[in-house]
Amino acid sequence: MAQEITRTGTIHLVGAGPGDPDLLTLRAARLIKMARIIVHDGLVDPAILAMARPDARLVSVAKKRAHHTLPQEDICALLVREARAGHDVVRLKGGDPLVFGRGGEEAEAAHAAGVPVQIVPGISAANGAAAAAQIALTHRDASSIVSFVAGQCKGLSDQDWAGLAGKGRTLVIYMGVKTAPQIADKLMEDGLAPDMPVAVIENAARPQMRVLRGLLAGLPDLVTREDVQSPALIVIGEVTARGDVQVARTAHEAVT
Ligand code: SAH
Q1: Ligand 1 pocket check: which of 100, 148, 226 to mutate, most ligand atoms within 8 Å of Cβ?
Q2: What is the pLDDT of the chain when averaged over all its residues?
């Protein structure tokens, strides 16, 4: 008796950018519109999910700091299971899949299971926020190094951040709202000037974006006083003190 052969599907790890559907790549938009199954995390904007076919299966594996709904191994297992059942899976992530997006772990799981993977880059929060707030991440007069760090990670206090921030450098901190006081202390202990300019960009590239500016020593206070909510980025460096106030005003900026 002839055996039915099921083709293995492909897992597409797709970056959804910082929120605005206009900031999707054409390839991401095409895959979202065609997909029969989309596995997405909590940062993906509803306007982007609304682009899916009406009969698409949308599976949320929302990862919020306080309540992990699905452990990473289970997400990997789900992706592999669906692909092995013959489905092309769109795994949709906020920003870029390979910047604090666990895209590496999911690609490894797929490789180990012999499932093909395609990765579609997205505009990472740092790039989206920089453009929306008109803060240059590098600037010939102010910064020639830019680093992305996770403010919420294992062993934060043991990490050596010396050299990442300071004169001529820009430090972009993802997931740093809750740990802002420890981050500010750590950087000042490492020798950073308390009056180093900082900016906090909440909901970058979304209609409700807020850009808050201040100085490193006042960062914890700024975050508390303005009740900054995730998702937000903290940018530290002289580049945050440049820029066009006019643009900033239209972006609901609070200068502190
Ligand atoms: N892969 C994503 C990052 C995921 S980590 C990317 O490349 O952007 C989640 C963190 O990203 C949040 O805690 C926040 O620091 C940042 N972030 C994501 N979207 C954001 C947005 N629209 N505005 C500001 N920060 C954002």
Answers
A1: 100
A2: 90
